[in-house]
Amino acid sequence: MSNILHMIHGLTRDIGFPVRRLLPAAAARTVGPFVFFDHMGPVEFDAGTTEGDVRPHPHIGLATVTYLFSGAMMHRDSLGVVQRITPGAVNWMASGRGIVHSERVPDDIREHKVPVHGLQMWVALPADEEDCDPLFRHYAAEDMPTTEVGGVKLHVLAGSAFGVSSPVVTASPTLYVAGSTVNGGEIAIAADVAERAVYVVKGEVTLDGERLEAGTLAILAPGAAVALKAVGETVFMILGGAPLDGPRFVWWNFVSSSKDKIEAAKEAWTNRNKDVFPDIPGETEWIPLPAR
User: What digits encode the pLDDT tens for the residues 42-61?
Assistant: First the structure.
């Protein structure tokens, strides 16, 4: 019997650069607290342009998690945080009741044609923390624990796995691990997390002998350890955690257990209510509320 519940290939969209969206999907809306999963790039941006820049936009009820393999992004938010996001670092922004941020491609990345390649996740906050104060935490790459098991280098980004624990503070039990190998290798994905998935960024793996190619997200069955075998040079992610404490509504950049809170956020952004969504220092642009 297969330990893979679903194989999700996602849809690739062009939003000024290629993005493959894996969550939410028809087969699985969430994996643990993860409610949104985008694989962006790799893509090079021209100097002297704003291609790839994401102008100021709002969030409620979630934490964004940005992780890069190459390139860089410049994060700015309404808390006044300015942070260059670089490969291997973990950047955790909890929107709580409301935050505004932008992500722009740095000039040096454009000028040197460095490919921007990474993942952006949204983690739904627990219902009793949806209205918390917004925050941003940056964890440098060198502060994130690594280990090697079965020829696979493992970078534990959130939670505990393979004998090491991440310093990243999460609002609910969360698992997020980056794995890489140049010559293949094999690990066992333990069954100690209720909901788990594997995504192949580059190369190919097998899960209990079933082939998983790049760009595919495999949702794993609960309760059983799964043998992951990497083929040659491979990059993959393991993600999951405890199930959400109830259903979530997702509309544009808003996530909430309450439709009323989403409607209130829509109104606040449309009316540029600075008490809910303050300005970002130094930014003058903003993305209007979609018509849909």
Answer: 999 999 999 999 999 999 99
Which tokens sit at 200? 């192949």
Question: How confident is residue 88, by pLDDT bands cut at 50, 70 and 90?
Answer: very high
User: Is-cis flag, bond preceding 18, omega within 30?
Assistant: no
Backbone angles phi, psi at 127, to 5 degrees: -55, -35
What are the tens digits of pLDDT across the range 204-217? 999 999 999 999 99
Per-residue pLDDT band for 18 (boundaries 50, 70, 90) equals confident
Say how far apart CA 30 and CA 250 lie, in whole Å.
Answer: 11
Percentage of the chain lying above the pLDDT 70 cut: 100
Q: The domain 4-241: what is its CATH number? A: 2.60.120.10
Domain ranges of the chain: 4-241
Residue 158 has pLDDT above 90, yes or no: yes
Q: How many residues does the chain have?
A: 292
Torsion of CA 43, 205, 22, 168, to 10 degrees: -80
CB 235 within 8 A of CB 178: yes
Q: What is the mean pLDDT of residues 24-40?
A: 96
